[in-house]
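fyi for ur records
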Amino acid sequence: MTDLSKRGLNQLEKTNAWELWRKGKTLSEIGFTVDRHAGSIFGVLKLKGGIPPVQRKSRSSSLSLQEREEISRGIFIAVSLRFQCTGRTRIMHETI
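which gave:
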């Protein structure tokens, strides 16, 4: 246990903890592997009731960051959505 003042687990440590939990490792073994106390591991696993969270993924039909930025900037300068979506049939049909 190197730095006990560090709070929480980062995403990589959480993923590793869930993998080890699925393999049947004890909280102490998981804590030793990710260099944390078993109580810290218990807190992470307890939040979801011992069931690993589903990996988040965005839908293919959702707008990209660039498309959302363009729409946001157009709204800021008072350009209508219909005018902004000219030539973009995907955005036009999904947002209006």
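The chain has six helices and no strands. thats all i got for now
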